């Protein structure tokens, strides 16, 4: 698979996509930040933030590649420097390593998950020079024996073992309590060090339709606005899951990378041989299985017959996303607001209790809203929605009719 195919299938920009002025400015800002702190003994942290789809991962991947090119030259201030890019997301790690295999500058060992990086550096005591962290909002904020992380905060440990840290942070993509982040929690870590925060705003993923991104932002906050009418984005509401799935299959045949996705409020287990299903009206499709291959889920042809989850698809681009909103996402016709039913959410791993979060119900509610944000912003060319809750389904249909959309 060449870089063009990889780009079309992932968070990376294709060759036809120009980098925004913000991204060019970001690259210069990161390089200047590194130079400013290169000869200091203290640690320093550069934070990149921005909405889903603004090209954060693509931008830091480009900058990291540039840094590694300089690190592997014989001269220059970065020559011989030891640098890594970390991501706590197995499917995204596959893409980074796949890109490295097709690149003469990057090596697969340049990319790793946070826990092995932390544990290795704790043993050797050797400090990394520059550590990039993609999807830093997935870093653990408590010990996790399953992941072999015994300390209390992965970001704190990464900073401890690095001269400069460059991280991507979006609190609206936090999906588990064990990696619960918000801006106050981030500042509690980075305010101990020199730091800079850079915001990206240009929307890359949702093609030509900022109004769609604005609608999704309002929806995840609880408000249903009229569905935007745009010729540049295929945005429809469905009264049943079967026609939605048929449309996904049609788009997949024409353009590729169209998949069904759902909120995590249909029963499932991660391990075991039992097949669990997502129900959407007359539609019944199996949940995605654990992907033991080196190919990301969305690139496997057979997954057109499955339903992906937030963990499968976070950070990736699809051409079209068919979204099933499960029973945890309801609607109150009297208040005209979304209702979040915590007791209907089936992702028990996401809701493992913590004693250090004052308002646990609010944190859990925000995690479900974040999952909506992640799912609804996957489609580059379009999104289709089916809601299992009758009140929500009717409200969405009326919102579509207001703009003349089916």
TrEMBL record:
InterPro entries according to UniProt: P-loop_NTPase, SLFN_3-like_DNA/RNA_helicase
Organism expressing this protein natively: Schleiferilactobacillus perolens DSM 12744
Residue ranges occupied by any Schlafen group 3-like DNA/RNA helicase domain in the UniProt entry: 44-389
Annotated protein name in UniProt: Schlafen group 3-like DNA/RNA helicase domain-containing protein
Domain of life: Bacteria
């Amino acid at each position: 698979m060449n870089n063009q195919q990889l780009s079309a299938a992932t968070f990376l920009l294709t060759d036809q996509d120009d980098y925004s002025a913000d991204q060019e400015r970001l690259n210069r800002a990161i390089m200047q930040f590194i130079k400013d702190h290169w000869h200091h003994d203290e640690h320093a942290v550069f934070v990149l933030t921005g909405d889903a789809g603004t090209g954060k991962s693509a931008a830091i991947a480009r900058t990291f590649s540039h840094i590694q090119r300089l690190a592997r030259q014989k001269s220059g201030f970065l020559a011989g420097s030891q640098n890594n890019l970390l991501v706590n997301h197995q499917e995204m790690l596959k893409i980074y390593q796949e890109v490295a295999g097709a690149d003469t500058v990057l090596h697969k060992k340049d990319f790793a998950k946070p826990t092995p990086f932390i544990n290795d550096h704790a043993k050797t005591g050797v400090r990394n020079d520059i550590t990039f962290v993609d999807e830093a909002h997935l870093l653990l904020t408590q010990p996790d024996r399953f992941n072999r992380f015994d300390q209390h905060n992965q970001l704190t440990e990464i900073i401890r073992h690095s001269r400069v840290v460059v991280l991507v942070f979006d609190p609206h993509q936090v999906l588990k309590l064990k990696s619960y982040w918000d801006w106050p929690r981030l500042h509690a870590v980075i305010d101990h060090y020199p730091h800079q925060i850079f915001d990206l705003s240009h929307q890359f993923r949702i093609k030509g339709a900022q109004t769609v991104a604005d609608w999704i932002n309002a929806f995840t906050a609880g408000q249903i606005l009229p569905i935007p009418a745009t010729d540049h984005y295929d945005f429809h509401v469905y009264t049943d899951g079967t026609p939605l799935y048929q449309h996904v299959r049609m788009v997949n045949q024409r353009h590729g990378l169209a998949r069904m996705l759902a909120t995590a409020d249909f029963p499932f287990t991660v391990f075991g041989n039992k097949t669990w299903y997502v129900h959407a009206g007359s539609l019944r499709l199996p949940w995605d299985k654990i992907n033991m291959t080196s190919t990301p889920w969305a690139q496997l042809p057979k997954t057109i017959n499955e339903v992906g989850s937030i963990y499968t698809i976070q950070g990736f681009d699809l051409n079209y996303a068919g979204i099933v909103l499960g029973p945890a996402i309801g609607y109150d016709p009297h208040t005209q607001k979304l209702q979040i039913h915590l007791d209907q959410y089936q992702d028990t791993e996401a809701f493992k209790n913590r004693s250090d979060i004052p308002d646990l119900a609010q944190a859990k509610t925000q995690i479900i809203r974040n999952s909506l944000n992640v799912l609804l912003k996957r489609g580059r060319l379009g999104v289709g929605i089916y809601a299992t809750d009758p009140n929500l389904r009717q409200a969405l249909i009326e919102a579509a009719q207001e703009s003349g959309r089916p």
